[in-house]
Amino acid sequence: MSWAACDRLANAADVLGLPDRQEVWQQRADAIRRTIEKRAWNEDGGHYAATFGGNELDASLLQLVELRYVRALDPRFKATLEAVEHALRRGEHMLRYDAEDDFGRPETAFNICT
Predict the structure, then answer these.
(1) Predicted confidence band of residue 107 (pLDDT cuts 50, 70, 90)
(2) At what angle do helices 2-15 and 19-39 cross, to 10 degrees?
(3) Using CA atoms, how far apart are residues 89 and 113, in angstroms rounded to an integer?
(4) pTM, entire model
(5) Which of 18, 37, 87, 110 could connect to 13 by a Cys-Cys bridge, CB 3.0–4.6 Å?
(6) Within 10 A of 57 (CB to CB), how many other CB atoms are there?
(7) pLDDT tens, 44-54?
(8) What is the pLDDT of residue 114?
(9) Contact 29, 3 (CB under 8 A)
(10) What is the pLDDT of residue 94?
(11) Strand 47-48 relative to strand 41-42: parallel, antiparallel, unpaired?
């Protein structure tokens, strides 16, 4: 979300004719993107992870396209989509995540993702 905010601010500054602000926000978006690509891409799993340095999947990763972070046909997104579907799909429904949390292991679908 931080990347999306900086990216949108850069776009807004460009439209408003504020090149200095556009450059500032674009540099910040680019720095965040580099961090995401370095720390959220899980090389072993071949997918984006829900946390930096982690392996866990979260259905919110499917928003990467909606946020315009990646294109739908990007190989990394396609691999992430397949991994999320394989790990979190339960019949016609999808879990938000499968990692145990304060409430235990999730047992119900996250219908907004379904």
Answers:
(1) low
(2) 160
(3) 10
(4) 0.83
(5) 18
(6) 26
(7) 999 999 999 99
(8) 47
(9) yes
(10) 85
(11) antiparallel
